[in-house]
C-alpha cells in the first residue's frame, strides 16, 4: 500500500530556527500525494571497482551541501503544509554497501534484481529522502555499479543532472564536463513573422489544450497490451536499458530532415520541479515501411513545436494548485498519467567521459517508479551514445529485455532502410 506522509520532528541534537526552515514548493508537495509518490533511480556503471571510502568522504562536501539532501520534509498537521528542516546526515543511514562476490556467476541478473527490489520500498521519512547503493560486482557493461535513489520532491531530472555534473570531472582532466546543449546560448525562439504563422500557433495551442483538459476529465487511450490498471503505481518495477549510437540517430535525422534538439538546462543552479505536459499520439498499426513511423512522428512534432502547449499546460498545473489545492492537483496529475499509455522523458547528459568521485563512468541510466502506468521510457545522452531506460510492470510486460532489444533492432532497421535508399 502507499505510505502516508507522517508528522516528523528534526533530530533532538539539532537546534533549528524559523529562518532555517523553508516551505516545500507546491509541486514538491504534490509528489507526496497518493498516486504521485515518485522516486528517481540513477544508475551509474563504472569502469573500475568502487572504493566506498572515497565515495563517503566526498559526499559531505558535494551532495550534502545541497540543503535538500540534508533536510527532513516535515508535515505540519495543523495546516497540512510541509517544510524543509535542516538535520544531521548520518551517512551510515544513506550509503549501503552490501558484501558481494565481485566475480559472481550472474552479476547482471543480481544488479537488475537488486534495483528492482528498491522499487518495492520507500525511504523512511525520518531522514532525508535519498540513498546510495554501491554494488561491487562485474556486469556486462561495467566493473561495478552505483545506484542513487532520490524522492522526486527533492528535484527533477535537470536539477539532478546539474548536481551530479558539479560532483564529477572530465575523465581526462580536472575540468567539469559539459551537458549537451551547454555551448548554445539557450533555446532558439522563432518569431512569428506572419499572420498565418501566428494563427497556426494559436490554433495548435488551442487543440493541444482541449486534448489535455479532455484527458484530465474523461479522455482515455484505447486499451492495449501496454495499458496499466488501477493501483499499478504501488507495484514494484523492473529496469532495463539499451544504448544506440548517437551517430546513427543523427544519420536518420539528417536523412529525414528531422529537427534535433534537447532540453535546455536551467542556469544559475536553479533547483526544484518544473512540470509541463505534452500529449503525443502514437500509431501502433503495423507499417511495411519503418520510416513511415519517423515521418508521422516528425509531422506531429512539427505541430507541437508550432504551439505553446508546454507553457500553457505548466500554467494550468500551477493555476490548479493555487485555486484548488495540492490534493486536487495531485488527482489531476494522476489522471493525466493513468489515462495515457506510456510516458517519455529525456535529459541531456555529459558530452565528455566523466568520473564521479575519481571513478570513471561507463554509462548513465536514469529511471523512476511510482507512476500509474505500466511503461515509462527515459532517454539520456552520454558522449557518443543515447541510452533508453525502461521502467516496467512485469505483470503487463513480462519480458522487458525483449522489448528493450526491439528498440535496438528498430534503430538498426531504420538505419539500414536509410542506407538502402
UniProtKB/TrEMBL annotation:
It is a single-pass membrane protein. SUPFAM superfamilies: CoA-dependent acyltransferases (SSF52777). GO terms for biological process: triglyceride biosynthetic process. The keyword Transmembrane applies. Residues 79-259 form the O-acyltransferase WSD1-like N-terminal domain. It catalyses: a long chain fatty alcohol + a fatty acyl-CoA = a long-chain alcohol wax ester + CoA; an acyl-CoA + a 1,2-diacyl-sn-glycerol = a triacyl-sn-glycerol + CoA. Residues 271-407 form the O-acyltransferase WSD1 C-terminal domain. One of its GO terms (molecular function) is long-chain-alcohol O-fatty-acyltransferase activity. The keyword Transferase applies. The chain crosses the membrane at residues 197-219. It is found in: Cell membrane; Endoplasmic reticulum membrane. Keywords: Acyltransferase, Endoplasmic reticulum, Membrane, Transferase, Transmembrane, Transmembrane helix. GO terms for cellular component: endoplasmic reticulum membrane; plasma membrane. Pathway: Lipid metabolism; Glycerolipid metabolism; triacylglycerol biosynthesis. In the N-terminal section; belongs to the long-chain O-acyltransferase family. This is Diacylglycerol O-acyltransferase.
Amino acid at each position: 500500500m502507499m505510505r502516508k506522509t507522517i508528522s516528523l520532528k528534526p533530530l533532538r541534537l539539532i537546534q533549528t530556527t524559523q529562518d532555517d526552515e523553508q516551505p516545500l514548493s507546491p509541486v514538491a508537495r504534490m509528489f507526496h500525494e497518493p498516486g504521485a509518490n515518485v522516486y528517481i533511480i540513477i544508475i551509474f556503471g563504472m569502469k573500475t571497482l568502487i572504493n566506498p571510502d572515497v565515495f563517503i568522504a566526498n559526499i559531505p562536501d558535494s551532495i550534502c551541501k545541497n540543503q535538500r539532501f540534508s533536510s527532513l520534509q516535515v508535515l505540519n498537521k495543523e495546516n497540512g503544509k510541509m517544510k524543509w528542516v535542516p538535520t544531521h546526515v548520518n551517512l551510515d543511514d544513506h550509503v549501503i554497501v552490501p558484501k558481494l562476490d565481485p566475480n559472481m556467476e550472474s552479476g547482471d541478473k543480481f544488479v537488475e534484481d537488486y534495483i528492482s527490489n528498491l522499487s518495492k520500498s520507500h525511504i523512511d521519512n525520518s531522514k532525508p529522502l535519498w540513498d546510495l547503493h554501491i554494488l561491487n560486482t562485474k556486469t556486462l557493461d561495467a566493473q561495478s555499479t552505483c545506484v542513487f535513489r532520490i524522492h522526486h520532491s527533492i528535484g527533477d531530472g535537470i536539477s539532478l543532472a546539474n548536481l551530479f555534473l558539479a560532483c564529477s570531472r572530465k575523465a581526462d582532466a580536472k575540468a567539469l564536463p559539459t551537458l549537451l546543449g551547454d555551448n548554445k546560448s539557450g533555446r532558439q525562439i522563432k518569431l512569428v513573422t506572419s499572420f498565418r504563422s501566428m494563427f497556426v500557433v494559436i490554433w495548435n495551442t488551442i487543440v493541444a489544450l482541449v486534448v489535455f483538459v479532455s484527458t484530465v476529465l474523461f479522455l482515455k487511450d484505447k486499451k492495449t497490451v501496454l495499458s496499466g490498471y488501477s493501483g499499478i503505481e504501488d507495484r514494484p518495477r523492473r529496469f532495463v536499458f539499451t544504448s544506440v549510437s548517437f551517430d546513427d540517430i543523427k544519420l536518420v535525422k539528417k536523412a529525414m530532415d528531422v529537427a534535433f534538439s534537447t532540453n535546455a538546462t536551467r542556469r544559475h543552479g536553479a533547483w526544484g520541479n518544473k512540470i509541463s505536459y505534452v500529449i503525443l499520439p502514437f500509431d501502433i498499426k503495423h507499417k511495411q515501411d519503418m520510416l513511415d513511423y519517423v515521418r508521422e512522428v516528425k509531422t506531429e512534432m512539427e505541430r507541437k513545436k508550432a504551439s505553446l502547449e508546454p507553457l500553457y499546460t505548466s500554467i494550468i498545473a500551477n493555476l490548479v494548485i493555487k485555486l484548488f489545492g495540492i490534493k486536487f492537483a495531485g488527482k489531476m496529475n494522476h489522471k493525466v498519467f493513468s489515462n495515457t499509455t506510456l510516458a517519455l522523458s529525456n535529459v541531456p547528459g555529459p558530452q565528455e567521459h566523466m568520473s564521479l568521485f575519481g571513478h570513471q563512468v561507463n554509462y548513465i541510466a536514469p529511471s523512476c517508479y511510482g507512476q500509474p502506468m505500466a511503461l515509462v521510457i527515459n532517454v539520456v545522452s552520454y558522449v557518443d551514445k543515447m541510452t533508453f531506460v525502461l521502467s516496467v510492470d512485469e505483470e503487463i510486460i513480462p519480458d522487458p529485455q525483449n522489448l528493450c532489444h526491439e528498440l535496438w533492432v528498430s534503430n538498426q532497421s531504420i538505419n539500414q532502410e536509410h542506407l538502402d535508399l
